[in-house]
Amino acid sequence: LMVALTGSEISASGPASIPASVPVPGPAPVPAYVYVADPEHSQYAGELAPEAAVDLIVQGVGVGGSSVDYLDNTVRHLKLLGIPDGPLHALLARVVERLRHTLAFEV
């Protein structure tokens, strides 16, 4: 699993993973790996306004697929984990609305 995750999440000079202890409901924290972005990296976007984030997501494609698919997959997994709504859900809704609007003018 770590090899698959690392291959999809980390470029040669991208985020580094560090071991961490994550607090969860229950008797003890869970060991995990936390991915830390390098703010000096050329692909680091920092905090973006929602529309600027949408602009990047709708045009983004990498070796693993499109940014739209990545965001959609992440939101689906959050829902499966019982996290029904949050900032990524709102971002996906904006992306979907942008794509609907764009496709309406291209047809």
Structure description:
With 107 residues, this protein is an alpha+beta fold. It is built from four helices and four strands; from the N terminus they run αββαββαα. Helices cover 49% and strands 17% of the residues. The longest helix has 20 residues, at 87-106. It is globular and about 55 Å long.
In short:
By secondary structure, the protein is an alpha+beta fold. 49% of the residues lie in helices and 17% in strands. The strands form 2 sheets. The protein has a two-stranded antiparallel ribbon with strand order 1-2. The protein has a two-stranded antiparallel sheet with strand order 3-4.
What pattern of helices and strands is seen along the backbone?
HEEHEEHH
Per DSSP, the total helix count is 4
Unreliable segments (pLDDT under 50, ≥5 consecutive)? Answer: none
Strand elements, count: 4
Query: How far from one another are the termini?
Result: 41 Å
Indicate the proportion of strand residues: 15-25%
Instruction: Kindly state the percentage of residues in helix.
Output: 40-55%
Query: Biggest sheet, in brief?
Result: 2 strands, antiparallel
Shape: globular
Radius of gyration, whole Å: 16 Å
The pLDDT mean sits at: 84
Q: What is the structural class?
A: alpha+beta
- Strand ordering within the main sheet: 1-2
